[in-house]
Specification:
Mean pLDDT: 97
Order of helices and strands: EHEHHEHEHEHEHHEHEHH
Number of strands: 8
Structural class: alpha/beta
Low-confidence stretches: none
Bound molecules: SN-glycerol-3-phosphate
Length: about 220
């Protein structure tokens, strides 16, 4: 299972990279705005800065919602760095754009996916990644994990190579349950990755070991 961090915060990206388990980064316009990164040139530069910190794929989202605009922006993003994956929303023009990018060797991440039907379309168009937002489904009392399981079943039925990127992860149990179902990738905040470290028995056990060592030395 690949671990991506879902942030545009360079310090958090460095921290996850230092842990040695980071496989990539996802961002979106809201995450960029949260870091105060505004204006096309600053946003493009920020993507390059992120690519220079991590080794893996970095999703960079198009803003245009028409086919021509998405192609223009996506080609510009893909030119920035070989690690860039163009993030395209699940709308009609987006499906066409994903197919175009696939045919032209540009990797894509189909975002804002909330149903198995949308995930099937993304795979048919050749998306590299599909991003079902599980936390946002949970927010409206719909089981986000059930969607991951449905997409896994459908993709396995037909051997689709599109990778399931479980997005809108909120906590460690999302990560663990996505791993049980077989999501290819998870993207979440740093806390959802570091939270996997924690267990009170690890802390108390280590404390005891160190105390016992001190008694004998
Ligand atoms: O990767 C998708 C993500 O950025 C959305 O997360 O927490 O805003 O639902 P959230």
């Amino acid at each position: 299972m690949k671990f991506f961090i879902d942030t545009a915060n360079l310090d958090q990206i460095r921290e996850a990279q230092d842990l040695g388990v980071l496989d990539g980064v996802t961002t979106n316009p809201s995450l960029m705005a949260k870091e105060g990164i505004t204006g096309r040139n600053n946003i493009l530069k920020h993507y390059v800065d992120i690519c220079n910190i991590v080794d893996g794929d970095v999703s960079a989202e198009v803003i245009a919602t028409d086919f021509k605009g998405m192609i223009k922006e996506g080609e510009e993003l893909a030119e920035l760095h070989p690690q860039i994956v163009v993030k395209v929303p699940m709308i009609k023009e987006g499906v066409k754009a994903i197919k175009y990018f696939t045919d032209h060797g540009i990797r894509t991440n189909c975002t804002l996916v909330f149903s198995a039907g949308q995930a099937l379309l993304a795979a048919k168009a050749g998306a590299t990644y599909v991003s079902p937002f599980i936390g946002r489904l949970d927010d409206i009392s719909t089981d986000g994990l059930e969607l991951i399981a449905d997409i896994r079943l459908i993709y396995d039925n037909y051997g689709f190579e599109t990778q399931i990127l479980a997005a809108s992860i909120r906590h460690t149990m999302h990560v663990i349950n996505c791993a049980k179902i077989g999501a290819d990738v998870m993207t979440g905040p740093l806390s959802s990755i570091e939270g996997l470290l924690k267990h009170p028995l690890t802390d108390s056990g280590l404390k005891q070991f160190l105390e016992d060592y001190k008694k004998g030395n």
